[in-house]
Write a structure and sequence with these properties.
heterodimer, A: 264 residues, alpha/beta, B: 297 residues, mainly alpha, two-stranded antiparallel sheet, 11 helices, 2 strands
């Protein structure tokens, strides 16, 4: 489904601020796989996600979806295949618009937008029904401005927006990081349902080793722009955080020094 | 205020209602501070006047004015989107260029339309005095334009344009081409302003290269004033507020000029405008801080 080859990217090349973000990343993700991507700050997780989404172009290397080269395709052209939930609920939704207007915007993702009214009666009914299933009282707030919802509610809407149009790849960018633990659990629960129901190929960036092991079917760790380890299937079952650390040390020959990753 | 002055203020308020729509689209919807309007307003007037003098049908001349205004908007947007020039600077560049272009179009600093056939000529058969028939005709044109704009901004494409201004990153991730939306929105905005310039030239009987000075401030005054009179988030309310703001602004100016005890004259117009805009911007804030103070006591 996703084939990443020899991806290289350096920020601010030729300046004192030069940072190498990705050093020859190779990664193949097959259809229906749920990959949790982990790594400390500056490991290249977000850069990789941004390249997949089309927000950043790599210096060299290719990205293919279903065999089609999309490396230099702009973000908005690939939205028929790919949808994204951002870390900050403010980024993923539009606070100036109402909840139903946000949903209407998402239900035209990946297709040509027309001059017909964005919201119809049937569409409102469809939104209301589906939001009722989420069970967090959003079905009565369709006409409310998005800015009035809490962070968790906005993130739930962002996730729901993903399901409104068919697509194959879901990118989750630390999408529970800015939520309280209880809401984070709820959002993860909704995420799992959506991924299963729509048979999505998913790439989830996370900062927490716990979450990386609990969610998904495969865990990839990035370190300084390279893949440190990549575990899936039987090898991954029953792994604990300690095992991940051992894997990391074996692969890189250094001890991981990032309290954030260990504690969260 | 005499009824003649009243109707005159109403008429100009309607024309500048179109400017307010344009400024609302650029400033509020696209979040693109656009000074092109200072050039596209006289551009609309210049194109219309030159074509009418050359015996072109006034309707064709008016449509040509809108088209040229739209083109000016596209150029500003292109400077920003493709050449990555800061939006404010891009619009100033187009505005400055338009000054020369307007002189070229007219061939001289002003063109008179006295005795020429304009869009308003057919109204003479109605038997109403011109100062009554013109505001009625303008009210019809402005209302139709407003309804079209409201429908557009509630359509799929219109919604994409609103998202472009409010959250471009989100818009792109929903498959919206934000550059296309900026170009389209700026074209609509400046086409509206050029239409206003065209109507103004036809009702006032002349086009002048300096008539655009301060258009942006008048537009902003109408948008901000309208928002404080009629706050609301829906597109319908927003556009009605723009029109209302523009008309109220004209009455405020007319009252200020008519109040003899103030000793103001027509040449003080820009000063009055600046003061009114300052009041309109500061009023909501002072009102809020006043409320806080009341609550504390």
């Amino acid at each position: 489904m996703i084939a990443i080859k020899e991806l290289n990217l350096t920020y601010d090349r030729g300046t004192p601020l030069e940072t190498i973000a990705l050093r020859g990343i190779d990664l193949d993700i097959s259809e229906g796989e749920f990959v949790s991507l982990i790594g400390s700050n500056g490991a290249g997780k977000t850069t990789l996600l941004n390249i997949l989404a089309g927000e950043i172009k790599p210096d060299s290397g290719t990205v293919k979806f279903d065999g089609m080269n999309v490396t230099y395709q702009p973000t908005e052209r690939r939205t028929n295949l790919i949808a994204r939930v951002f870390q900050d609920p403010m980024t993923g939704t539009c606070e100036k618009l109402t909840v139903e207007e946000n949903l209407a915007l998402a239900s035209a993702r990946g297709r040509r937008r027309q001059l017909r009214p964005a919201l119809s009666k049937q569409q409102r009914m469809r939104f209301q029904e589906a939001l009722t299933r989420l069970g967090i009282g959003l079905e009565n707030r369709l006409q409310d401005s998005m800015g009035l919802l809490s962070g968790g509610q906005r993130q739930a809407v962002s996730l729901f927006m993903v399901t409104l149009q068919p697509m194959k790849i879901l990118l989750l960018d630390e999408h529970t990081a800015s939520l309280d633990p209880k809401t984070a659990t709820l959002i993860l629960h909704i995420t799992n349902d959506i991924v299963k129901e729509n048979h999505l190929t998913t790439l989830m960036v996370t900062h927490s080793m716990r979450q990386a092991l609990d969610v998904g079917s495969r865990t990839v760790m990035l370190h300084e722009g390279q893949i440190a380890f990549d575990v899936s299937g039987k090898e991954r079952q029953g792994l604990k955080i300690q095992d991940l650390l051992a894997l990391f040390e074996k692969a890189r020959g250094v001890e991981l020094a990032d309290d954030d990753l260990l504690l969260s | 205020m005499s009824s003649l002055a009243f109707l005159g203020a109403f008429e100009i308020g309607l024309v500048f209602g179109l400017v307010a729509f344009g400024v609302y689209i650029s400033f509020r919807i696209l979040d693109f501070p656009d000074l092109t309007v200072d050039g596209s307003f006289p551009l609309g007037a210049a194109v219309t006047a030159s074509l009418i003098v050359a015996d072109v049908h006034p309707l064709t001349a008016t449509l040509a004015a809108m088209l040229s205004g739209g083109l000016a908007g596209v150029i500003t947007a292109w400077l920003n989107v493709r050449l990555k020039i800061l939006h404010l600077l891009a619009s100033i560049l187009t505005m400055i260029a338009l000054y020369s272009i307007n002189l070229r179009i007219m061939g001289r600093p002003n063109v008179a339309l006295l005795g020429e056939r304009t869009l308003l000529t057919p109204l003479e058969t109605l038997g109403l005095p011109y100062y009554v028939s013109t505001p009625i005709a303008f009210a019809v044109i402005v209302t139709i334009t407003m309804l079209l704009l409201i429908a557009f901004f509630n359509s799929e494409t219109g919604l994409a344009m609103r998202a472009t201004g409010a959250n471009p990153r989100m818009a792109r991730s929903q498959g919206v081409s934000t550059s296309t939306m900026i170009v389209l929105g700026m074209a609509i905005s400046n086409a509206l302003v050029a239409l206003a310039g065209s109507m103004f030239a036809q009702s006032q009987g002349s086009a002048d290269v300096t008539m655009g000075v301060g258009t942006i401030i008048v537009g902003l005054a109408s948008v901000i004033g309208g928002e404080s009179i009629l706050p609301g988030r829906s597109m319908t309310l927003a556009f009605i507020a723009c029109l209302l703001g523009s008309i109220v602004y004209r009455f405020a100016v007319a009252l200020a000029l008519n109040a003899d005890f103030l000793g103001l004259h027509a040449q003080d117009l820009n000063l009055i405008t600046a003061v009114l805009v300052t009041i309109a911007i500061c009023l909501p804030r002072t009102r809020a801080s006043f409320k806080v103070r009341v609550r504390r006591n």
